[in-house]
Fold each of these.
Amino acid sequence: MFPPSPSASPSPSGPADSSGSSGASGPSGPSGLSGPAGSAASAGTGAVICSAKGCRAPAVWVLAWNNPKLHTPERRKTWLACDEHREYLGKFLGARGFLKDTVPLEEWEREHGSDG
């Protein structure tokens, strides 16, 4: 018998991409991230929610990122964040050299449309 494993952080799920498709190809997210930026993240309510696992707060920030080992330089994938999780998610992406930009959701939608 093995002793119980020490408590670990929750298992993450993948991030979203700016095309609105599932983020299965992205990096593992901090404390688990859920849903794509946009359609599925809205849970059918029309409200866009934070990508942090378990957070149901409205998203007000877009963290645009790209993994240079996987994506062309112009490609941008997105995570959404509420005010509470913006810094945390940004630090996670930044530590890996993935974070390219953080902009208010309203500004992102004006520049890229609501579908990313």
Amino acid sequence: MTADAARPVVDALDNDPLVVASFLVWILGWLIGLLILAFGAWRARLVSLWVPLVLTAGMVLEAVSSGLAPKLVVSALMAAGLIGLARGLRPSRVESVSVAGR
């Protein structure tokens, strides 16, 4: 299949309101879900405050910037935040944190 043959299919998908709505729900769910996870991990004292703040800054910068340099900064911020989140949520770390009331 060539690019010219696929063009009508791509155009039809781009103009389908159900596809657009599904895509928007997916993107918003991913963005909001990641922030809820990050701030929840901070509130549970699994990660430092810088982790959700860096992820928030990366998402905001992604939304308002264009060009190569800002996108590289976004990539660095998101990588740092996701690595910090992963380190805080690793199984040995989660098991070692005491839970109130236990």
Amino acid sequence: MPRDLPDNIHEESGSADGNRQDSGQVSLIRQEFAGPLPHPSVLAGYDDVVPGSAERILRMAEKQLEHRIDTESLLAREQMRQATRGQHYALFICSLALVIAAGLAFSGHEVTASIIGGLDLIGLAAVFIAGRVFVRSSGEAEPEASE
């Protein structure tokens, strides 16, 4: 076994009579730490090397957290704005199609009007059904139906 082992690995060998006897056992200590900041002992090590660096690292983590919260809030607001805009456009387009269908029906083009009106209603139903299926498959909470 190599002699340049780290301090936290200890080789267990030897015997009472002084002859070296390799038992083949090795102890290994493994530590894990997860989080946005280094382990406190590592943070203290930074502070030992450069005084005040631990405080700077903490400030950096706080600024990063604030930035992330701000970015996620902005993203949520923009997604809501985009969804609202899409609903307004859809309402306008569907209303326009129904008005055109009604105008065609009153001018004697009942077949064309029924095709446009029917496709408009089928399209609306398909969008609502597809939206509910997408919400279920993505794991988001489905909106409650209000009575």
Amino acid sequence: MVVLFSGLLESSKKPSTKENLRKADDKHMREQAALLKKKQKEERAVAAVAAKETREKEKKKKAAERAELQRKKQEEKKAAATQKTLQLSQRGKRKASQKGNPKAKRTRVAQPAQGGGSGGAPATPRPTKNTKTRTVKLPAQFLNSTN
């Protein structure tokens, strides 16, 4: 009985030729897919290396340009400084400051009284006391003036 049972298992294990062909075809497809995947991975790696090299070249180029620009700027600065020192040494002594033209002084001119009137006595009498306590003595020339 054991023999018969094992014989049944063996008969079920034997695949048909169609199934063998299908399995072989699947295996071949898997191998092809793996090869394609590996090839694509290598291509991406090569492309990444090439991109890295171009980035490094650009970086070096920009660094060189920056260094050149900085060197030129420093040379210009140095030239300007030497030019300035030459100008300062050639200028010599400081000149004395010059007086400017004097401005014409404004003269005070009495304004004519406004509001009309006889032109005689002023509208308010002259004060005799300054603030509250101090007596004001006006000079004689102002006491009798009617102008």
